[in-house]
Specification:
With about 500 residues, the chain is mainly α. It contains 25 helices and no strands. Helix content is about 65%, strand content about 0%. It is globular, with a radius of gyration of 23 Å.
């Protein structure tokens, strides 16, 4: 018989509809949620902790109010562990787990910017987009500007499955069923006197949405929409808006331009990438947010190798403020650790520790448009990559398992290709050719499906390892990797 802590938590279905639970979910008071679950489900703190991945002591602190939950990852674990129905998940500010044909309630999608509920699309409206008769099988037919706005408004992570379902319904024809969010923008583009707070917030939300779309959709699916977005921002800035809006428009233009530069590189358009880099530099200066340049150089580091990549990351760090922006800080420290490890420098381990400390302080979903990608799984992937480079077998196994736990068929982001590639390289180092080939195949499949140049680049290290292998499966894999890189226009490994 399983121990008490191993028994699943069964929450009465009607508890999620009780006014006190709805209030707790709306205010994101997880302590109150836990107290209600303990009261009505009759479960111990230990069982709650096992279900949601927290220690009994941490559950106790949360229930007493000594600790407040603010991390998206914890909210998601709580929702999963307590088997929250979709309505409860959405009340908590999370995306629905399963979208079905059942009519959805008219509750607004939670906004990050304080916009009145009356101005937001309802979950039912978005559901109609997904489930209506005008769905498209081609993600490139979507109204990506409206999709980015909707996704940017969601105050939560959106997994790949949900994102693709939204995209499938977000054709230009279907998007018209949402009250046109760009009427104010059209007026604003005709003169600065029409620019208002709501318009600026819509543009900020759309920039966040593009950053979220990037890690689940192919670059070519969003590039044109992103450049249109930047053009609109530029036109507004040039129209002479009031100073209170000018700096915010410049900042969001910079955040969008850093992403455009990265995507242009991914699409093998170096001239356009360099142009967007210049735009982001100007926007960083105009807005008074030099940290935008930190993002620019961090992205640039992925396009470089060896000492040049390391120098780009170190340059990025010079744009960090003395305090704050901890999500960006954790990202840059992790990237520096990766590049130092590639050069065989053991100082990378200390940088990983510093990155973890910064991540513990960070609020990736609240800091910058580009920090939405950073979560515990991504941090584990950074650790895996670093320890693989250092040939640290013990830590590779630990980090590899953590990284694997962060991905599944439901969260198949572009990073999955990188994680599988790093695990493949580690398996080859450990002498397990069969497992190495298996994970490399997964990496290749994921990189092809998500059109991830980044993932294919990580597979370059696997190619070098395979070059000396006599195993037939390994040699076939090597041939497929070489062919894929050639078809993608990438340089030889």
């Amino acid at each position: 018989m399983p121990a008490d802590g191993a028994e699943p938590v069964v929450v009465p279905a009607d508890l999620w509809e009780r006014p006190e639970m709805v209030s707790a979910l709306t205010s994101r008071d997880i302590g109150h949620v836990f107290r209600l679950v303990r009261q009505y489900a009759g479960v111990s703190q230990t069982r709650i902790g096992v279900a949601v991945g927290l220690s009994q002591g941490k559950v106790s602190e949360i229930m007493k109010g000594a600790v407040q939950v603010a991390s998206f990852e914890v909210f998601e674990r709580v929702a999963e562990g307590l088997h929250m129905p979709d309505l409860a998940r959405m009340t908590l500010g999370l995306a629905p787990r399963v979208i079905t044909g059942v009519p959805l309630p008219r509750i607004p999608i939670p906004a990050r910017d304080g916009t009145p509920a009356s101005a937001l699309p309802s979950v039912e409206q978005v559901g109609q987009l997904v489930l209506g008769p005008h769905q498209s099988d081609d993600v490139h037919d979507v109204d990506v500007l409206t999709l980015a706005w909707v996704v940017g408004r969601l105050d939560t992570h959106v997994d790949r499955r949900t994102m693709l379902l939204l995209a499938a319904g977000m054709t230009a024809e279907a998007a018209a069923s949402i009250v046109d969010p760009w009427e104010r923008l059209t007026r604003a583009l005709s003169g600065p006197q029409a620019l208002d707070e709501d318009t600026v917030e819509r543009l900020e939300a759309r920039t966040i949405g593009f950053h979220r779309l990037e890690y689940v959709l192919p670059a070519r699916a969003i590039y044109q929409g992103l450049t249109t977005h930047i053009t609109e921002l530029s036109n507004l800035i040039q129209s002479g808006p009031p100073d209170r809006f000018r700096r915010r428009l410049a900042a969001t233009a910079g955040e969008a331009s850093t992403l455009a530069a990265w995507i242009a590189w991914d699409l093998k358009q170096p001239a356009q990438s360099a142009s967007f880099d210049r735009v982001s530099a100007l926007a960083a200066k105009e807005s008074g947010h030099p940290v935008i340049q930190a993002c620019t150089y961090a992205y640039k580091s992925y396009a470089l190798e060896g000492v040049l990549a390391l120098k780009a990351v170190q340059q990025a760090k010079t744009y960090l403020p003395p305090h704050g922006d901890d999500a960006t800080r954790a990202w840059l420290l992790s990237r520096e650790a990766e590049e130092l490890a590639a050069l065989g420098d053991r100082r990378a381990v200390e940088l990983l520790h510093q990155a973890e400390e910064a991540f513990d302080r960070a609020q990736p979903h609240r800091e910058r448009a580009w920090t939405r990608f950073l979560d515990a799984g991504r941090m584990a992937a950074f650790q895996l990559s670093t320890y693989v480079q250092l040939s640290d077998e013990r830590h590779v196994l630990e980090a590899g398992q953590s990284a694997l736990d962060s991905i599944s068929h439901k969260t198949d982001h572009k990073r999955a290709a990188v994680i599988y590639a790093d695990i493949a390289k580690a398996q080859f180092q450990l002498g397990d050719i069969s497992e190495g080939v298996s994970y490399a195949r997964r990496a290749l499949d994921t990189a092809q499906r998500t059109e991830s140049t980044w993932g294919l680049q990580h597979l370059a290290a696997v190619e070098k390892t395979l070059a000396g292998q006599q195993d037939q499966a390994a040699r076939e894999l090597l041939g497929d990797l070489i062919a894929t890189r050639r078809d993608a226009g990438l340089s030889p490994a």
